[in-house]
Write a structure and sequence with these properties.
By secondary structure, this protein is mainly α. It is built from 2 helices and no strands. Helix 1 runs antiparallel to helix 2.
Length: about 70
């Protein structure tokens, strides 16, 4: 990620978030498709997904925000 400038922090953070989400979506989809064809990979992919959600929840708690996914 590029360094944030002070002139457009909100815009830069939103842009970084969208670009990161796009990359994550593509990469997680590939991992999930590969794991569906190779069962021994499914444990690692599930652990990765669980870890990502835990990291996001921890960050929400630290920053004082929370988004209920309904799960």
């Amino acid at each position: 990620m590029t360094a944030l400038t002070t002139t457009a922090l909100a815009t830069e953070i939103l842009e970084d978030a969208l670009l990161t989400l796009e990359q994550m979506t593509t990469r997680l989809t590939v991992l999930a498709l590969n794991a569906s064809r190779t069962p021994e990979q499914s444990v690692r992919v599930r652990a990765l997904l669980s870890g990502l959600l835990e990291a996001i929840q921890e960050c929400e708690e630290v920053l004082g925000t929370y988004s209920d996914s309904g799960v």
